[in-house]
Design brief:
Rossmann fold, six-stranded mixed β-sheet, 8 helices, 10 strands, 34% helix, 22% strand
Length: 255
């Protein structure tokens, strides 16, 4: 995917720009974390890529095709899983197919396989109100993968969860990504989370948002919870923290 000199402002051309002349290219199969404080335009980048909003300037392409609206080959997971409370877990996974009655045999089989992959086969008949936060987010991950999307967009999907559940789902997401090898963009404000999951961390901050750094993460996979305590991980985290501190002192991070 490629973003070229994009400008975006809520309220149209008269609004204050959230993004100005932003450019970013991501190769197929990469896992990229977009890291930054609130208000830096991270979630807006995902909305533009998903086709939910359109830029006032610049171009956005996926596989050399301009993004003009929502696409079937782009999957999205939000901070809250957005499950329909009156539908079962299996039906929520099948939502992109129009629920079980409208699903093809292939889609139904894919949904069952994905529920097994995320460890929810025994919960397929439950309703969202019967799920923990981590279970609900795993339903969201399975739903995102139903149609084999080429691009995965994850907007702080674990930020509302407790620390232990976040660690477990980070391991789960890494495993799913290594199996599927889809291009992934993961928005977060957590330095450890970005370092653990991504092969590349893009730091986006300011108002309008701009790229302060684009850092490769040379940590071998699969990564484990022990990876977090390794010296190289700590050195990378310190480098990113120093970047934020320096930018804040010079007034380049807007509130």
């Amino acid at each position: 995917m490629r973003i070229d000199t994009v400008r975006f402002a809520y309220g149209g051309s008269t609004g204050a720009p959230i993004l100005q002349d932003l450019s970013l290219a991501v190769q197929h199969g990469a896992f990229v974390a977009i890291l930054g404080p609130s208000g830096g335009g991270k979630s807006t980048v995902l909305k533009l890529l998903s086709g939910l909003v359109s830029p006032q300037g610049g171009t956005i392409q996926i596989d050399d095709t301009p993004v003009t609206g929502p696409r079937r080959d782009v999957g999205t997971v939000f901070q809250k899983p957005m499950l329909l409370p009156w539908r079962t877990v299996r039906d929520n996974v099948l939502l992109p197919a129009g629920f079980a009655r409208a699903a093809t045999a292939r889609e139904a089989a894919r949904a069952d396989a994905l529920l097994a992959t995320v460890g929810l086969s025994d919960s397929a008949g439950l309703y969202p109100g019967q799920l923990s936060g981590g279970m609900a987010q795993r339903v969201g991950l399975a739903r995102m993968l139903l149609h084999d999307p080429r691009l995965l967009l994850l907007d702080e999907p674990f930020s509302a969860l407790d620390a232990m559940t976040r660690e477990h789902l980070s391991l789960e997401l890494q495993r799913l990504w290594m199996e599927e090898r889809r291009t992934a963009l993961f928005v977060t404000h957590s330095i450890p989370e970005a370092l653990f999951l991504a092969d590349r961390v893009v730091v986006l901050a300011g108002r309008p948002g701009r790229i302060l750094a684009d850092m490769p993460i040379p940590l071998p996979r699969p990564r484990t919870l022990e990876t977090i305590s390794e010296p190289h991980f700590g050195a990378l985290a310190l480098e990113l923290r120093r970047l934020f501190d320096t930018a804040a002192r010079h007034g380049t991070l807007a509130a």
